Amino acid sequence: MFTGHEKLYKCHTKALSRLIEHTDPQIYESEEYHKCMNEDSLMHAPEFVIKPRSHTVWEKQCVRLHCTVSGWPDPRVVWYKNNVTIDPMAHPGKYKLQSSYNVHSLEIDRCDFDDTAQYRVSAMNSRGELSTFASVVVKRFKGEVEEALPMPRHGIVSEYGITFETHIVDGFGVSFGREGETMSLGAMVIISPNLARYQPEVQWYRDDVLLQTSKWCQMHWSGDKATLTLTHLNKEDEGLYTLRITTKTKYETYSAYVFVRDADAEVEGAPGAPLDVTCQDASKDYVIVTWKQPAVDGGNSILGYFVDRCEVGTTHWSQCNDTPIKFARFPVTGLVEGRSYTFRVRAVNKSGMSRPSRTSEVVAAMDPADRTFLCTLDRPDHYQTPYTLFFTLLFLSEGVVPGRPKELEVTEATKNYVVLSWKAPGERGHEGIMYYVEKCVSGTDSWQRVNTEIPVKSPRYALFDLAEGKAYRFRVRCCNSAGVGEPSEATEATTVGDKLDIPSAPGRVVPTRNTDTSVVVSWEASRNAKELVGYYIEASIVGSNTFEPCNNKPVKATRFVCHGLVTGESYVFRVKALNAAGLSECSQESEAIKVKAAIASPTPPYGISVLECVRDSMVLAWKQPTFIGGADITGYFVDYREVINGVPGKWHEANVKAVSDRAYRVSDLKENRKYQFQVRAANMAGVGIPSLPSETFICEEWTIAVPGPPHDLQVTEVRANTLVLLFKPPVYQGRDPVNGFYVDIKEADAEEEAWRGVNEKAISTNYMKIKILKEGETYVFRVRAQNKAGVGKASDLPAPLHICTTEIVVDIDDDGVISMNFACSNLTPDSKFVWSKNYKEITDETRITVATSGEKSKAIFNMPAEDDIGIYSCAVTHTNGESSSYTLSAEELKKLLEISHDHKFPIIPLKTELAVELQEKGRVRFWLQAEKISANGKIEYVFNDNTLSQGEKYKMNFNKDTGVIEMIMESLLQEDEGTFTFQLQDGKATNQSSLVLIGEVFKGLQKESEFMCKEWHRKQGPHFVEYLSYEVTPECCVFLKCKVGNIKKETVALWYKDGREVKGDGNLTFAEGVLNLEIAQISKKDAGVYEIVMKDDRGKDTSTCVTLCCVKSLMLHFIQSTEEGIRLYSFVSYYNEALQVTWHHKDSAIAFTDRIKSGVVGEQLWLQITEPTEKDKGKYAIEFHDGKGGLKRTVELAGQDRARVAGGLPDVVTIQELKALNLTCNISGDPVPEVVWLKNEREIVSDDHYIMKFESGKYASFTITTVNTTDSGKYSILVKNKYGTESADFTISVFSPDSKK
C-alpha cells in the first residue's frame, strides 16, 4: 500500500508525461490530483528521473552511484559491472546496495584498478525494462606510477586468449590555436598482434576530465589512428589533453597541452572575451550568471561586463544590464517561469566591446525549493528545443493569509546590487504565494516597498540602484489572494559595497628551465585570497616591456609550464590572481631566465682507483657519473679521510678549485697511512652528491718497473658490430716511458679465462676501433700499457649493462611497525647490505635499526617522524651493481603513519552507515549493520553528546547474528532535532556512525512521520480508498464516484454541493464499497464543489471534487471567404473558457501570428488566415481537451476546388420602387457547390417575388420582379461544398420617386 506522498508522486509523473504543448496547467493540477487514487491508471514502465553519473576517483577512495527510478508497480532494480550482476554477498564489504524512497545506490568501498569498469543499472516491472550506464575510472596517486590515469586490470584477455601490446607513435605536440578555429589532435596507435576486428577503448581527457562527443568536440577512430577534432575553439578548450588507449591487458597514454589565444578583436584595443559562463541558483524568475575575466584587457583596464540572454528556441539576444558591472557575477531577473535560457557575457573597456563569450548551458526558470516535477516534452526537430512545464503539489488549506517568511538573509552584496534570500512560511494559501520586498535606511523606521507593481515568485530577489556606502535593512512580506501577510524579521544593517576584496598580488615568482621552448614558473600564492578562481601568467622578452599572456584559462596551481617561448631569448615573468571581484595587481617580475633545456646536478662519480703513489701523495682516477645533469661537467672535487684502526675520520677537501680531468694528485699525505677518497662532480646546476667512499689505500711509494694501469676508459660511436674505445695513458710510467697499449675483450658473462686480446701488436694511439663484435652481445674491455720492462697492470673495467629489477619494499606489520625491505639473490660470500640515508651510510641506530638475515635485509624505523624524511638506499657490495633506493617524503610519511595507526587501532567494518526509515504508525527506526562483530561487542547510543538508554521513548536492539543494530522511536518531537550516533566497540576494534537530522531534513522527516501516523489512524475507521472523481459522457452526463473501505452497516455517506447537502433522488448508490452520484445533462448551474462525508462511531473521512461544464457537441468546420482572406469556423453547444482549444494545420499545432489569428464569438470558434498562399492549403483541425478527453473535427482547405463566388455582384444597388432588379454572378467549385441566398442573415425561398436560379453549375441569378421599400436590406449569397464555404454580400437600397424629389 502506498502512502499519500508516493501515490501523488506517481500520479503526477504519469500525468506530466501525457502533456502536450500549450496545455493549461490549472486544469491538469485539478484533474490529475483526483485521478491519482486510481492505481490501475498509474501503471507505467520504469523511468529514470535521475540517472547515475560517471566518476573518476583516486585509488582506495569510496565511490557511490545513485539514481532515482519511478514506475508502477515498483520496479526491481539490479546493478551490473561489465554486464555481470553485482552480488554483495559474494564480495563482503566491497559493495553496498541501498534502496529508499525510489532512490537506489551502489557504493564501492576502497576502489582499486579492478573497479575501473562500465556499470549498468536496470529497472524492470510488468510494464517494461529500462537501463542506464555510468563509468568509474580509478586513478593512482602521482608518484606511485608515472601515469596519472588509472591502470586497467592485467592478465590474458579471455575473449581473445592473447596479450596485446599498445604503442602510441607520431603523437601530437603542444598546440596553439585561436578562438573560432578548428583544431585536430591525433596519434598513430600500433596494437600487436593486429586483429582486424579488434577495437581498443579510445578515450580523450582534458585536465583529467573525460570528454564526450558534442558540438564542440568530435572523436574518430580509424583503426590505427585516434583523432580529436575541436570544431570551434574557445578559451574553455585550453588545457592538458590526454589520449588513453586501453586494452584488457594494459593501457598507454599520451598527453600534450593545448593553448587557445583570443581571436582578433572586432575593435582595436578591445579586451578579450570572458570565459566559463555558468548559471547558478536558478529560480522561477531569477538566476545568477558567473564568469571568469579574460587575461587580455586590450591595453586598457576593463570597465565592466554586459550580460546577454537568449530564450531557447529563438535567436534574439537581449542585454540584461544597462550599465557595465565589474563584479564577475550578476543576478538576472525578469525571467519567465517555465522557459529556458542561455547566457553570454561581453567585456568592455574605453576602446570598445569584446567578442561575446561561449554561451552557457541551458537553464530553466523554475523554483528548486518547491516540490516540483519537471517534464520535458520533445518538439519537432526543426525547433531543436524542449518546452518545460511543471506542477507544484500543495497540501495546504485555501483562503489563508500567508505567514512571515523565514530565514531572511543577505547572501551577496556589491556596490551594484544586493541579493536577498529567504524561505517560504509554513502557513500559505492553496494557490501559492508571492512576495513583496521592503527596504529602509539604517537608523530610520521608514519602510519603502521595492517591487510595488509586481510581486516576485521566487524566494530570492536582487535590489539595484542602492546608494553606495549607505546602510540598509530589508524585510519581506508574503501575499496571495487572501491578502498580504506580516513582514519577516528585518535583516541586520547592510552597507552597500563590494564585500569580496580583489586578491592580493602573488608572491615571489621563480622561473626554472624546462625545455628549449618552455619554462616552469612557480610562485607564492596570494595571501588571504577569498574565492580564488586562479592565476594568469604573463611573459616578456627582456627589454621589450611588452607582456603577453602565457595562459588564457586561469590555473589554480602555483606552478605552470609556459610553452611557445623563443629558444635562446631571455624572459621575465609575472603573475596575477583573480576572483569574482577582479584581477589583482601584478606580482613582482621574476629574474630573467634564458630559454634552454633544464639542467641538474650530476650523479656521483664511481670507480675510484689509484694510478700512482709516492711517499706523500697519491694520483686518483674515477669514472664519469652515469648522469651528468644535462650540462657539461665543469669539474670535480676530491675529498679524503684517514682510516685509523678501521675507523674512518673526518672528510677533508683535497682541492678548493675544481679540476677538469678525471684524475688528480692528492698531496700532503703521510707515508704508510691509510686513506679513503670520495669525488663529487659539478656542472652549472651545482655540485652533486659525493661518491661512495673508495677502498682504503696505503700511501707508500711504488717501485715496480712496469707502467701503471691506463684509466678513464670510454666507449663511443657504438654501432651494430663496431665501437670506438677511448682511454688515457697511465700516470705511473714505470722505469721507462710507455711505448704501446694492448686492448682485451670478453663477453660480459664469460669466465675470467675468456679474456682475449683484440690487437696482437701494441698500438701507439689512445683510441682503437673494434670490429669483431656480434650484434646483441654484451662485452667488457680493459687496457694494458707496456714499456721496455714489460706489460703493466690492466685498467678497471667499464661496467656491463645490468638491469636490477629488485626494489625496496615498504611493509607495515600487524603491530604498526614500519620497515624497508630489500632482497638480493646474487650475494657473494663477501657481500654486505649497506643502508644509507641521503647517500650516507647509516651507522647510528638511534632512529633506524638494521636487521639482515640471508638474502634479505630490513631497516626498521624506531619512531617515525619528520626527522626521518629523506632518501634511503640499499647497496649490496661485491655484486654487479645490485642496489635500490626509496624516497620518504612528507606526504608518504603521513600516509604510512595513517596505515600504521589503522593497524594499531583497528576499525569494525560496517556494511551500512547509520540510516533512518519510517515504519507503520509513523515510527522512526535508526539502524546500521556491522559487517563483522563478535558476541562481546558493545553498543552505545548517543544523541547530541548525551548517552541514551532503553526506555519508553527509545527501544534498542542488537542482533549479534546479523550485526543489525537499531533504535526505534514512536515519534519525532522538536527536541529530537540533532545528531544521532551509534558507537561500537569489539575488543581493540572500534567504530562509530552518525546521522545529522537538522533543519529541513528533520522537518521533512517529522512531517512525513506525522502524516503516516495520521493515515494509520484515518484508516482505522471508514475511509476513502479512491478519492472522489468524475467522468463525463458524450451526452454531458456526469458520474461522481469514489471507493471506500473499512465500512459497516452503521456507516453513513452524505453528499454536499457548495456546502449544501444533496438529497438522494434515486441516482445515489452505495454498493461494494463504491459510491456514485449521477448528474444528468450537466449545465453551468451544476458547476461547483461536490463533497462526500463518510462517518460512523469510529470516525469520518471527507473527499471533494470540482466539476466543470463540458463541450456537448462540436459541429463540422465551415470555410468563409472574407475581404482579408479565409475564415474557418465551428459551432459548439457549450463552451467554457477553461477548456483548451488547439488549432492544427497538417497535424502540427499552429503558431499564431499577425497573419493567422484565432478567437471566440459566442459559441462560434474561428481561425482567420489573412492573405492566404499556397502553403496554407491542406488539412485543418480543431481540438478540444478538458484534461480527461476531447473532441476533434477536421476540414480540407484545397484552394480552387472549394466553393467560391467568382464575381459579378455589386457592393450597393440603389433602385426605384416598382422597378425590376436582376443580379447575376459566377460560381466555381468541384464538386458543384450548393447556393443559398440570404436577406439580413435569413434564407430566402424562391417564389413569385424572388426568383433564384443556378444554371450549369456556374451561373447564379437573383431577380426581384417588383421592387418595393421592404426589399431594402443586406443580401448575401452563400456557396459551399465539401472543401469549404464562401459568401458575398451586397446591399439593396429602394427609394420612391416622391421621396427622391
Automatic annotation (TrEMBL):
Residues 46-137, 798-889, 1022-1107, 1210-1293 form the Ig-like domain. Keywords: Cytoplasm, Immunoglobulin domain, Muscle protein, Repeat, Thick filament. SMART domains: FN3, IG, IGc2. GO terms for biological process: sarcomere organization. InterPro entries: FN3_dom (IPR003961), FN3_sf (IPR036116), Ig-like_dom (IPR007110), Ig-like_dom_sf (IPR036179), Ig-like_fold (IPR013783), Ig_I-set (IPR013098), Ig_sub (IPR003599), Ig_sub2 (IPR003598). It comes from the Eukaryota. GO terms for cellular component: M band; myosin filament. This is Myomesin 1. It comes from Oncorhynchus kisutch.
